[in-house]
Design goal:
The chain is mostly beta strands. It contains 1 helix and 28 strands. A hairpin with a 5-residue loop joins β24 and β25.
Length: 393
Amino acid sequence: MSPRIIRVLTFLVVIAALVASAYVLVPKVGTGHPKVNTAGKLIYVSTADAAGKPHIWIVGFDGIGAKDLTPGDQSCADPNFSPDGSLIAYISDKDGQQQVYIMDADGKQPHAVTFGTAAKEQPQFSPDGKTLTFLSQGTITSLDIQSNDTQIILPSPGSATSSATSSLIDVSHAPVVSYAWAHKASGASSDNGAIAAVQESADGDLQVLTLLTTLQGSPKELLYAENINLAWSPDGAELYAALLGAKLSPEQPNFSGMLTFDVSGNIVQRPPLALTNSPTVGPIDPSLSPDGKQVTFSLLSEPDLAHQKIIGLFNEPLDGSAPPHELLSGPATSAQWAPDGVHLLVILPSGNSSGHDVWVASVGSSSTPINLTKGSGDVTGAQWSPIPPKPGT
């Protein structure tokens, strides 16, 4: 065999190896030093960077030790912890295009795991931490973190669709706008369980809640609404859908409130939560307490898209034993219970600017809530580490 042919074959082998590893061209994340302990911490996106670019920050629930995890000339979004809190998946344009990255939770070893020009958003780890899902051009795509195999999950035009309603939206083509994995119960099998998704009509006027009981299953349509927000119970057994202008079928009148479904998509027979008498006033951003006994939500008034207003932040027992209780009046959003069941974060407008801050309060305590970001930049999202702080800290 001639030297020229050998060189050509060697080149082709190298190219083939690069293509095969196109999702992983740098050392795997999480190697080289121990896993990062993020107990009691939270991450958020803020423009506190000197250049005003949105970066991902991490801080303790007491406001101590704030750190920019993604410094430099990049814009970041949608951070999401791995189930053990040691990794963070996020979106960055560091290389000129929006890609999904994974980094250690201390900001080390940032690692792009996607390529291509299509925009990506909302990366989420599966409950077992072995799969990463993200949205790209209205589709949920899954990525096996070890093998780098990808699969389009939803919408899937080739899959049959079972429906609990008379179809108002063709879910085999309707783009996904948000989704949420069911939490994995303690002691459960390796099966990751269900994914709930919100898909949208072509004109954006109507949304449909769909449920995938497994990644390989067919989507089941549950209901329609003008606005749908999702939250799973801590044990992954129930799905809570916060609804504005909802329909269980095309023939029924609109209502707003929160309905509960089991993992098969059946409505749990209990009175709706956060029920209002208006199709234009209803709950958003639901968050369930770790003990599964109460839900916190913001109440949105939306007579039309040009006139949206957050009325306040409310809390309600899941058993319906008491009406919703107002915790805060005004535009409080994105409330989330910490895994310790004590702390609650919420995003509020900054007092002296047009931005927003992250506040943390101790639920049921008379202690003063802490402003973690103090107007240093506009905050657009926050998430608790899944690892609670040690008792007494």
